[in-house]
Amino acid sequence: MAAAVRKTAADLLAKTAVDLVIGYGRSSGGEIVPEFVSRPEQAQALEWNQDCTYNLVRYLTDPEVVGDAGAGKGSGNAASKSATASKAGVGKVAIVVKGCDLKSLVVLESENQVQRERLTVIGMPCRGVTDQAGKLLAKCEECPPDVYNPRRELCDLVIGEPVQRTGDGPTDKSAARKAEKNDPSGQSSPYGDVEQIDALKPVERRALWDGYFARCLRCYACRNVCPLCYCKECVFDQHDPRWVSPAAAVASNRSFHLIRAYHLAGRCVDCGECERVCPVGIPLRRINRKAAKVVEESFRFRAGLDPQAKSPLVTFATEDPQEFIE
Amino acid sequence: MSGSTGTVKKTGEAKAPVKKLKIVGFLCNWCSYAGADLAGVSRMQYPDEIRIIRVPCSGRINPLLVLKCFQQGADGVLVSGCHPGDCHYQEGNLYARRRMLVLRSMLSYFGIDERRFHMSWVSASEGKKWADTVRSLVEDVRAAEVEAQAGVPVW
Predict the structure, then answer these.
(1) Rounded CA separation B37/A239 (Å)
(2) Beta pairing partners, A23
(3) A104: closest CA of chain B, how far (Å)
(4) Which residues neighbour A124 within 8 Å (Cβ) at sequence distance 6 or greater?
(5) Which stretches of chain B score pLDDT less than 50?
(6) Cβ-proximal residues to A130 (8 Å cutoff; 6+ apart), any chain
(7) In this complex, is the C-beta atom of B141 within 8 Å of any C-beta atom belonging to chain A?
(8) B20-146: what CATH class?
């Protein structure tokens, strides 16, 4: 498979169909890292295996990578921002995506943050990716077939044949895991982890989350890795007005996580990158998934499926629920 | 008045002093603010624990404003606008309805008692509804205060 990726990338670059290929490569230490290839002979550096965890879609809005074509990310540093903004765009880009990453690309497209016609999307059927210990990620254990085999109509190329996850594959593992747990408290629901927290009393939820938020360093890794956090000036970098204190205290951390989750409501595709990069192990997917659950139940909308769809919080329906309103 | 101590004592009762609440109400200019005005003109009695901020439309209310109130020590927040279909700007309240639904769920998820955050539709002719809304809001926030852990601030 890696050979097929290298050949595809080399071909695309050789016939100048694209100027840059964003894929996976190896660091000098041998770890899988994002790789940016702009010449056919460099394509040999590309890799594909079960360590390819990164969601590369994040780079499609990064001015450091795609120049003016990208929307950029709040840095708080005006000088560096203007420097990168003046960098010329790189033209056409090809990107290697897993099915789960593809969903975040769909959201970027629906929000007009990428010019789809300038992109070549290389879809990768995926057997699931692993963490540093070699264990399959939780999100991969739950991954449905229409995600681990990327939707062909959304890709320009799909490399290799569709994956069958059977035998000791992840699907069976997760079934076995569920049976083993024999936990009726919502394991059957797609939002079981969220419902467990919903079932707590307010004071218990407060104690639970404050316990996590007390650990938050406000390193902003979750924001910086998020493929959908592309604002040129992030609300957390604003000083006038300053909505949230930059101090890493529980109250301001709670504000930070609330706003971050709110900004992702109806947009987050649960790629799990935020939770993966969190240095203090805050279960960020459980926060994002709460917003996704509310949006799905109230507005019957799931993010990342339709490039033409509008984000549910920039639109409305006259029949929207209003039981909570007096 | 006992504003400086932050408590009120009801005369003739031997109860412990009840904490005077601070509740922020964001009212749209066209319906709810006029409704509250009508309640005042009609001399309806309702708790004085709400502070009203007039905004052009409930669709103007950025969730960050609600959050800021809690950050700054509000015990409760109310967002009030025109009934669906009556919005001066046609649809501002319908955007607000979606936003506030998600905000309320997320606040609740983080353990902020959802009784602290209310939304209501109050038209310019509903002075009585306004007074009733504030009364039930104050009751709800008080109930949330009772259940809250002692010494833990709202935010």
Answers:
(1) 36
(2) A35
(3) 21
(4) A1, A5, A48, A52, A96, A97, A98, A99, A150, A158, A159, A160
(5) 1-3
(6) A50, A51, A53, A136, A137
(7) no
(8) alpha beta
